User: Fold this.
Amino acid sequence: YKRIVEDGAIYSQPFSEGGAAAAGGVAFSTEAKPVKGGWLVNGKKIFASLSGHADYYGVLCTEVAEGDKALRRNTLYLAIPAKADGVSVVGDWDPLGMRGTVSRTLLFRDVFVPEDAALMPRGVYFQAAMRWPHMFLTLSPTYVGLAQAAYDFTLRYLRGEVTGTPPVKRRMYPTKQIAVAQMQIKLEQDKAIWFQAITEARANPTKEQVLRAYAAQYSAMEGANEIATLAIRTCGGQAMLKSLPLERIYRDSRCGSLMLPWTAELCLDRIGREALYETGESDE
Assistant:
């Protein structure tokens, strides 16, 4: 943290590779080969937020010695300087939403990383991922915030209080009032389960707590877009304009459900499977 606090360094954590590694299914294909004094890193990270702008990339990769097999338990977390030899940024970034993240593709080709660049000791990331699953909720607060922002904007808009727009009140219409009530209820539901799940973050949580964490992630990611959708419909045609924030909130919130390792689909899959099966059970 010294670089961040004293030097103002910006860190990025490239995670995705286009396969099952980011979801925890297999070892990361970005590999770190042990050499004298450190590692040689080779691989690729896609959707690498702040690529080309961060000072350091916190790269999750697999330590693989000559002749060994890549295993998840050998995951390393290395701080790779953006200007290190062999690091390059390629591709464009023109997505539906989350445009401000600039998540282009990172390439690593024989990048030497010294031993003191390890952000965690060997094996700690794997243990954390297995024993402290709530760490994968860290994206969800952003989407709880987007849901709150969509709701807050709707209130101001219907009250005629949005800067730069005519002070026209639309709050007297029953359809608007019902929509606001629906948004309020949905927002409170999503926040309630999210805050409960966060208070349960700990090592070795119970099965019930893990299932609730999945549900909180799903609720935050899907709920943000549901609220933004209702906000746009309620505020009307003006909400489509880029001069107002709702269209951006809508686009950004739609992308939340795609964020690994806990996408909306993976959360549904894990909730259903883990609720019905105990560890080691099968129907064979």
Residues 63 and 69 are 9 Å apart (CA to CA).
